[in-house]
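input
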Amino acid sequence: MPFTLATWNINSIRLRESLVARLLAEETPDILCLQECKAPVDKIPLEQFRALGYTHMVARGQKGYNGVAILSKLPLTDAGSEDFAQLGHARHVAARLDSGVVIHNCYVPAGGDIPDRKENEKFGQKLDYLTQMRDHFRTTLPARAILVGDLNIAPREDDVWSHKALLKIVSHTPIEVAHLGETQEAGGWVDVTRADIPTGLLYSWWSYRAADWDAADKGRRLDHIWATADIAGAAHGSRILRAARGWTQPSDHVPVFATFDL
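output
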């Protein structure tokens, strides 16, 4: 049965409840994975979402920070979560569909502003988080699985507005790109978005700092959809909803979509 999945760093689900409802009503993905919900699970506003048909949820949350949730029209069961790098943060949750497909929803730490773990503890935490993700998927090789989320790294030169300008900027430094690549390789993950859209500039995040984000267009592709090789060939229809960056009180991220014929 085909299903469409979307991933979106919502940057506060309570503040942007209406935007989530708009996305669900207008785009009708079967599954929506949210990051940076910034709410305990019992404070996630579900009434509107349930009214739109999203009657299933698996989530991990905490007050004011982090938080990941999977909203679904399709039945799913909680498949656990991992505390990579032992940060005590709600940054990962997994859910299993009735078909057996497991969806991992991840929110990798942003890493602060200085790309040096000696000067910036948060950057070290980011690298450690990715290292433990890598080791986890090496030990527990995923199959029939999808990994989505705000991975906070734009790996390719055409995933950023200027490769040269961002080489020393957190999210595009060579060490981060290498760590992400190792994590991807460890799980045998296929970058579904780039399999569908192999060339050209592609962004899912634009800074709040830009006076006119659209005109400046200094974006980065920080949000990803991966799938294991055994089901990656069933993915198609990848797209990024750029228009959502222009909605009222938007997140600085926009939704990324893919459809799977499984």
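quick obs: The first strand starts at residue 2 and ends at 9.
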